[in-house]
Amino acid sequence: MDAPLDYAQDGTIVTLTLNAPDIRNAISGNDMIDALVQACERLNADMSARVAILTGAGSAFSSGGNVKKMHDGGGLGGGLPAQTRRNYKLGIQRIPLAFDKLEVPIIAAVNGPAIGAGCDLACMCDIRIAGESARFAESFVKLGIVPGDGGAWLLPRVVGYSKACEMAFTGDMLSAAEAFACGLVSRTVPDAELMGEARKLAQRIADNPPHAVRMTKRLIREGQNMQLATLLELSAAMQSLAHATADHKEAVAAFIEKRKPEFGGA
Known about the structure:
9 strands
């Protein structure tokens, strides 16, 4: 049986591929949840990994939940209401918490439909690039449920309150072009060029000092919830760490000497 998530590292770039095309890369199963959480932990622990790309195998990025299991009376909603609560907390809600702790920048290369929790998974990433065949929908309401995976927190921070409400209240599908227009993705590219463009962007990130990149990401993430004064304190503390790195000294020397820097991650 194939692993639900393929973890492949090439140099400093890791590609994570949701590998359940038979169920359109649904992420509500425990095997996929465990794999995503473990991948985030592995990325955090490995300083040789400087950036990650997340995509889907087959024609879909992710269908979100497994609707067939819902129909059969199983899935996260099975059992007593109190058990459903535990199913979410011990299941799919582990994914946004793991992504929130992830220090390595991650790019969603959205290769097809990203529906419900699949749309939210893309929003958990730092940057989103869409192939022209990508589609997006915050479609929980179409199934008579609510975003149980953090979508109500994630989506407004990506597209703004008004557009998030429009998407969540209607459940309507957005094309790749419409997703670009509302800022859900930063660019759209032809399907055949998607992974190449994602890798080019990943390489530009990976070329920078890894400690500075990781700390910059953490500051941006924390800045979503902090007051300015608190963030400035955290920024000053992290800056003191950045100034002490060998990569900072190399960057300054290369700038003065008008040469390309070589960053070793120290």
